[in-house]
Amino acid sequence: MIDNHSGAWPQAGLQQAYMVYEIIVEGGETRLMALFKGVNLEKIGPVRSARHYFIDYSMENDAIYVHFGESPQADKDIAKYTINEIDGIKEDGTTFLRVKDKYAPHNAVTSTEKLLQSAKNKKYRTTSKQESVLNYVTDEINLEDGQDAISVTIPHSNLQTVKYEYDETNKVYKRYARNKPQTDWDTGNIITTKNIIITFCNNYDLEDTENKGRQGLTNIGTFDGYYITNGKAIKIKCVKNARDEQTKYLDLEGNEIKVNDGNTFVNICPINSNVVIEAPNIVQDAAENL
After folding, report:
1. Which pLDDT score is estimated for 212?
2. Looking at residue 60, what DSSP letter applies?
3. For 108, which of 79, 147, 225, 255 is 20 to 30 Å away at the CA?
């Protein structure tokens, strides 16, 4: 779970994640869940607390869920689903470190080495035979029949708007948040992604005893969305039948989409989000065309 508060910027590890999920949390902020496999990273973070709907995407990727604290709803669901978790609050003080160049609570970091050692101590399984959620292919996918998508703007809330700008030379999208480049903590390089998936889901305010404006997410069912890669976008359907089942990403003919080899950002945004997909000299309101 990666902090996406402006006080946490820049973050470490996002560029090395093979998938990153972005979903709204309280106050109009978003939080990021980064998935890693087969990489060795000395710094990941800042790590923040769990939210219950992120657990769904941890389960469908057969992942160990790493966080630093949790909401009451997440605490309940971690127990309910017997989630293999690494929680910074429960660790012995060696798995996570509070760095001095950011202020708490935006300064907890970890590494793959420390996480794997913690997983070993807990006797967690660290390999998986589960198929990938996404249907990655080696042949380049160009979405020839798709609409031009040189710029993609995704308003998650009045506070958090994400924008992706296509780099035609390198065939990746550069990521911006709140009108600023989103960069890597150590290198200073802008974060890029090969693929973007947008899913429109309804979020709503939860009522709990803490009254912090925490969010719920209606993510079980069939939802409209987009798959975007190599400067093109197509409409898709995002189908999730149960919290612990994998999401299926289908084209409008019902076929599973083929996804370009490379990293993927999955932006799960409010159902009424005014997503805008732009071509050169053309602006198209995506939400009105779903």
Report:
1. 86
2. H
3. 79
Is 156 a domain residue? Answer: yes
Which whole number is the average pLDDT over 28-55? 97
Asked if the model's pLDDT at residue 280 lies above 80, the reply is no
Regarding whether 272 and 142 lie in a shared domain, the answer is yes
Whether residue 90 sits in one domain with residue 182: no
- CA angle in degrees (0–180, nearest 5) for 247-250-251: 160
Total-model pTM? 0.95
Could you give the CA distance from residue 190 to residue 81 in angstroms, rounded to a whole number? 36
Give the number of C-alpha atoms closer than 13 A to the C-alpha of residue 128, restricted to the C-beta side.
14
Beta strands in 13-119 (DSSP E): 19-24, 30-35, 65-67, 85-87, 97-98, 108-109
Q: What type of residue sits at position 96?
A: F
Q: What pLDDT does 211 receive?
A: 80
Distance separating alpha carbons of residues 175 and 172, to the nearest angstrom:
10
Of all helices (H) and strands (E), which one includes residue 261?
none
- Answer whether residue 288 shows pLDDT above 60: no
Report which residue type is found at 148: D
Q: Which residues contact 234 (CB under 8 A, 6 or more apart)?
A: 143, 145, 146, 147, 226, 227, 251, 252, 257
Does residue 32 sit in the same domain as residue 93?
Answer: yes
> Mean pLDDT over all residues of the chain?
95
Report which of 169, 287, 179 is spatially closest to residue 231, judged by C-alpha positions: 169
Question: What's the burial of 265, exposed, middle or buried (CB within 10 Å: 0-12/13-18/19+)?
Answer: buried
Query: Which residues span the domain enclosing 151?
Result: 136-195+206-289
pLDDT at 7: 95
